Amino acid sequence: MDEKYKKLIDEALKIRLNAYTPYSNYKVGAALLCRNGKVYLGCNIENGAYSPTACAERVAFFDAVKNGERDFEAIAVVAGDDGATDLKYASPCGVCRQVMAEFCDDDFKIILPKVKGSEIEDVKIYTLDEIIPFRFKLKEFR
To answer: What span, in angstroms and rounded, lies between the C-alpha atoms of 15 and 25?
Structure first.
């Protein structure tokens, strides 16, 4: 595995611990890599009304866009129950996939690790085109 992707997974694992999940106790961390090497982090933030809840992936994307970023390479996503150290693959939800479709090229990478303790046991890497084919795109963003 590419060393920069391993570092991205490590960052996602760290930020996952900051997730605010009093309702689901399901913590998600995301680390978004820009083509210029900058990394933006996100964790899920729940709300009792549910619809204001923000997914980790969107938090990372919105922070990056807010800071002027528009050229993205990859995102690592990790998730599991609060306190869990064994994490299964955690694929982005449909809304997050659509946000990715707004800002990313077809070859954008979605990195989904399986973690056991402190070790990365396996990694699945998909392109945006693979996880959301025939996506809605109102206009070309760039």
So the answer is: 15
Structure tokens at 61: 């994307």
Q: Are 37 and 64 in contact (CB under 8 A)?
A: no
Catalytic residue numbers read: 57
What pLDDT shows up at residue 20?
A: 98
* C-alpha–C-alpha distance, residues 92 and 49, integer Å: 21
Pairing assessment for the beta strands 26-34 and 109-116 based on DSSP bridges: unpaired
Taking the complete model, does pTM exceed 0.85, yes or no? yes
Question: Rounded CA gap, 33 and 41, in Å?
Answer: 9
Task: Tell me the domains of the chain and their CATH numbers.
Answer: 3-131 (3.40.140.10)
Alpha helices, DSSP H, located in the chain: 3-16, 56-66, 94-103, 128-131
